[in-house]
Structures are given as structure tokens and as C-alpha cells.
Amino acid sequence: MSDAAGGGAKGGREAAGGRDAQLKHTGLRPGWTTGACATAATTAAYTALLTGDFPDPVTITLPKGQTPAFALAYEESQPGYATAAVVKDAGDDPDVTHGALVRATVRPLAPGAGVVFRAGPGVGTVTRAGLPLEVGEPAVNPVPRQMMREHVTRVAEQYGGSCDVEITLSVDNGEEIARSTWNPRLGIVGGLSILGTTGIVVPYSCSAWIDSIRRGVDVARAAGRTHVAGCTGSTSERTVVAEYGLPEDALLDMGDFAGAVLKYVRRHPVERLTICGGFAKLSKLAAGHMDLHSKRSQVDKGFLASLARAGGADQELAERVAGANTGLAALQLCAAAEIPLGDLVAETARDEALAVLRGAPVAVDVLCIDRAGTIVGRSTVR
Fold first, then answer.
1. Is the pTM of this model over 0.85?
2. Exposed, middle or buried by CB within 10 Å (0-12, 13-18, 19+), for 179?
3. Helix (H) / strand (E) containing 343
């Protein structure tokens, strides 16, 4: 594979701080998501279906414009279909899918069918509500689906094909690997999910990442920033920029380390701190967890039920929230009943953050978002 994941510094961005500088500062090698691997395999397979030749390596374009190239580990072309596969490289991240073989088989469909996704061996199927996919759908998340659609369109335009294809995705030993993930608890059966919002796996290291957070705060303070934002990922960063117009060096990629941000800002104050992240993740902060990683804290639906009750939910709704499959499902139940669970989580998370700050001169507000970056809960500034 070529092209460094995450790309190089642009116009001195590394020196200026922000997410890209934090990634560089960890010294860890990023990798590729299953969504990026599936897109590369799909692109190669559809190219071979139309031309008879597999591009190797195959180059794709990620959502932020990076253009990595993937070597093919398997290729097969038969009348009516083509299959290609790539090996997932997770970089320095201890990802259970590192080394997995991700396959895509592409078949033509009748005009007007569009792009249809199928779950092959080792890719899961959604069986419960509360995920960003309908029950019965292959566990291929929205951004990877969009990436594959876009690349099918590009290949079709280049070689005279159509955008009516079936893409069957599979992962060798995926069902076994999935037992080490949250998929079984979420009702995703039969294998892994095809995931990723940027195409890049951010490597995980407690010490390196916390050090990068501290560096981000230092850079922001040195630049005279009075308002910084701790964000759990790229989607929350985009939301904060759209909401407040913050510059890049005011953005702290806190990942799961909310406590690290709060403790460092307590000792090195700024006037205002916005915390922005997914609703489910920030519900953990609201429940008092400072490390939001799924291996160290889980969404407490009983806690969400108690917040819903405080917000006016009746006992029946509270019990449904407590039994919800995911945090998103709990949020949807409350939204249908006009119970502002998102706001309640944001307000409670803000109060937990203030408790950690212990009276430091820092005003805090919290934004909860969904997977698309839409704000589903917000607190006042206090």
C-alpha cells in the first residue's frame, strides 16, 4: 500500500496544531478501515468485470481526499461476476480485524436496480433496531456504502458500464472475529460490520494520545485561543466548526479521553471549552465515565431511563429505554415521545465536566450529535 494514511502536513498545519498535528505527534502508523478495504476491493472487481483486467494496486479516494493504493491479495473473474480482495492493515492500532481478508464480488443487475449490497460469509446482518441501518440489511455502514457507490460510478463512467450492480462483501473468518466485538450484543449476526467514516484507522495509544491532547491545548493557548473544543472524532469536529467557526488550532481530537482534556484544561485554563461527540459516547461522560472507549465503559440504558424519567417520561417509556438495544434506539424512543433525552444527556455531561474542572475558570458546554453530525442534544454554557 502507498500514500501515508492521513496525508502530509498542508501549509504548516502540523506546526499550527489541530487534529492532523495530533495524529502526527503520536508517532503511530495509521491504518485502513474495513470500509476503505471494501471500497478498494469493489473498485478492482468492477473494473475487471468491465475490462477483463484487475488494477493492482488499486487506488481509491477517501472522504478527505487521500488517495491510498491497495495491493490485491486475491482476484477471480468469471462470466457474470468478478471478485477481488485486499488484506486489512490496521497500522499500529490493536484492531481485531488487522490482517483480515476483505472480499468484494460484483455482479451486473438489471437497469434501474442501482447499487445493491449483500452480506457474504463473515459479514453480519442487522437483526435489531437502533443502528443506522434497517433490520435485515447487511452490516455495511452508511459512509462505506457511499464510498462504494461513488467508486462504482467512477468506474462505470470510465469504462462504459452502468451503476446497476450487486456488491457482495465477505471477510474470511469474519464470524469468528466478530465474537471479539460488540456485534453479537448489538444484534449483528453472522460476522463483522464494514465500518469507517474517514477510511483511516486512528491508532490507539493511551500515553501517546493523551500527550497529543496536551500538546493541542498548549498550541491553542499559545495562539491566544479563548474557545477550544474537545471532539471525539472527525464528524464532531465538522459540527463544531459549522456551529462556532473555530479555527483548526482550537480543535482537540480527544477521542475517548474526555478526562485527559478536562484534567489538563483544569491546570491550563481557557475561557471556554466545548465538548462534542456522539450521543451514546457522551452519555458515558454524563454517567461519570472519563474514558469513553467501549472496552472500558458502556452505555448504561438504565441511567438513560432515569434521565428520561426526570425529563417527564412515564414508567412504560422508561422501561422501554432501559431495554433499548443501543443508545440511539433510546434516543429515538424519547424523541417520539417528545422527551428531550439528548439535551438531558448534554446538560448532565456538562455538569460532570464542571465537577472535574473543580472550579477552574473555564465555561463549558456540550453538544451531542448523531452519526450524520446533526445536533441531537445541547447544554447551555455554564
1. no
2. exposed
3. helix 341-357
